[in-house]
Amino acid sequence: MGDRNGGKGRPWGPLRGEDDALNRIAVLLREQLERAGLTLRDLQDRLTPELLNDQPVPSATTLSKRFSGEGLAAAGTLAAAVIGLCAPDEEVAGLLEKAQELFAESRRNRQQKLPEPPSVTQPGMDESTDPPSLMAEQIAALQVELSAERAARYQSEAAVTFLLGYLAGTRAAKPERPAAVLALPEPLPARTAAPSVAPWARSTSPNPIADDEELLHVAGVMHSLDTDGSRFARVIRTAFDKVLDGPLTGRYELRQLGKTEKTYLSTLIEMTVQREFGLADGTAMDYLIDGVEVDLKFSQRGLWMIPPELNGHLTLLLSAWEETSTWSLGICRISSDLPLGRGNRDGNRMLSVRSAREGIHWLHQQAEFPDNALRSVPPHDLEAILQPGASRLRMAELFRRVQGRVLSRNVLETVTMSQDSMRRVRDVRPFLEAEGIAVLGGTPEGVRSARKLWLPVPSYGDHLSVRLTRAGAAHEGAPTLLLGDELWTVARPEDPVEPLPQLS
Question: What is the model's pTM?
Fold first, then answer.
């Protein structure tokens, strides 16, 4: 590799990435910039927010830092844009895969550096556990780091997923690379509600398909059935939990599924949507919505495979991104006017969020659905929680290590691998109360206690754990809860461990 910025600028500075993998990504990006004969200034002129998935174009200083490896861990979108702009068309796919592998290696390197918490033996328990307080500040720091890791993985994987899909479809038919080739399908653009247009009639196109009365009518019906998106969010979470089958398998995220199970997930989503909204069976399509035949396609990445028989029909396009716990729902009419990718051997063609932006009317964009809490637990904590042993020990470890968060019944059943999680909660409460940890359920008393302590409120079947301490002068202004004849409050890391009065 040359030693100058694009071969005609200032010499490259030293590599300063957090690890060798990030430095190798920086070298890869430098090589592509040099091959294209560009300087960082030239690159900055060519980058646009659309190429960066609606993110602002970095300054020259920021670009220089990224090309040295600094801050590159969370710059997967920028890396994909550079490769797409600078590399030859026939090499883009391979280089994206190489970059993704290096991003994954860097994540593994950083995860190995996470500190291990100390262990002590708890009275009455037959396995070693962490101190009851769990040092909340360390947990918060680890959760922040984990969020950064997930964001980095999300950005790099999203870039590769979309660009490889594009290369497999539309690029072969369009030799010239359009400006939107690097615009990732996730996350979708933020919602910008037009004051005079109903949300269900909104389109991402500058020229909405206003003449398609059936499309707008079906959009209106679906919007009226779920104005805030809460029902679709519940459908997605329910379907995910069913296919993961945590109580039987112990699985908690979709990447643990096999290929056949992932295929079944789409079918399960279609059936769950039909049951949730009481939709009638269609003759040719999945549903009959107020007399109109409508199909539904589900995707985990905003890339839908469209079979030939959908041509001319209305299709609900549902996508859900587990990495960000967001989902989107749009409706379009499949036609030859849509920029579909080349067909596979079955004649199915790919439709992407970006390529079909002029034909999709969005009902909901980037709405949230409930995440599985286990996905955001730091790896070393998760390993301790899921270690082999009695289910009550795993349950107790969960409540020690994941405090202040509502844990759904499904999470509890996944950890204990049983459908009798309520009994396990009763079993571990005495041990946890001896460590100062209260377990609040979705009962009226639990809800009142959570509200008095300014904590998230659990629903029926859900639980939340929190370490408490007697309220003193150092806790002035903090919310309190009366237990027995004393006031208690949420413990700080430095507060001593104090057994609770009997709560069960």
Answer: 0.58
